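Researcher: I'd like a structural prediction for the single chain below. Treat it as a standalone chain; there are no partners to consider.
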Amino acid sequence: HMFNGPVNIPFTGLTISLQLLTFLLIFLAFAIKIPMFPFHTWLPDAHTDAPTEVSVILAGILLKMGAYGLIRVCLTLLPQGLHEFSGWLAVIAAINILYGASICLVQTDMKRLIAYSSVSHMGVILLGVAAAAGIGNIAFRTAALTGATIQMFSHGIITGMLFFCVGVIYDHAHTREIAAFGGVAKRMPMLATLFTFAGLASLGLPGLAGFVAEYITFTSSFQVWTTITAISVFTMILTASYLLWMLKRVFYGPFNQKWNWLPDANLRETIPLFALAAVIVFVGIYPKFYIDVITPSLSQIMHGVSAAIRP
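Model: Treating it as a single chain, here is the predicted structure.
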């Protein structure tokens, strides 16, 4: 659980201006960690230079520390500051989603493409937090925060699987350039299937974890930030564009004879991928299990925050 025991908000006695200033200073650190536009430029380079296992940990755990801090510190301890900034946070979230997805369309390296997709998907979390800190029905705001929390989990699993798939290809082919491949599903059918599955999960295919998180976040945030959420939803079409484009260029289409020797993923490589795929399917089909775990804590936080916010 993210929170146990009674909600205690010690900084609500501060003036609104002082709480907003304190929030902005703390928020800046979390914004870099998330990463949030325009502090995102370190992430693609970090993923590109890091080995596969580090990229998986970075995407699956470390980025979520920024989002967790935003909820656990900024929303819980400085609710008035986040409330005053929530409109701007919603705008920044939409920029994250749009900018990250747009940049993915021009990437030539698979790892950089997935890294920029993380910028876009983390924007969904920001949108959920912005809705939670906004004005409106507490049920919708709590649901938005629930969706953002599920997105933290699902993005970590899905993007970790994507980076793992790229790592398998790189270990065998020693390149991550999209244009260098073509039709390699002929030589790597198992990896092509798993990579395609992860890509479909990332773009929000119903029945998988990514869809659950984005559906809850967008439908709830729409009740708080209608226009911004509508723009964000339409830009998610770009997610399907860049992921399907990458999969087509790498695995499908005319076969590049250069890779006629390429071996498929071995058992050591496929077991972790199947484990991640199983979690993605489980959360997508039965999200209630995960929601029941996080809802009591999030509801407690939201009731405390709502009581502390001064309109």
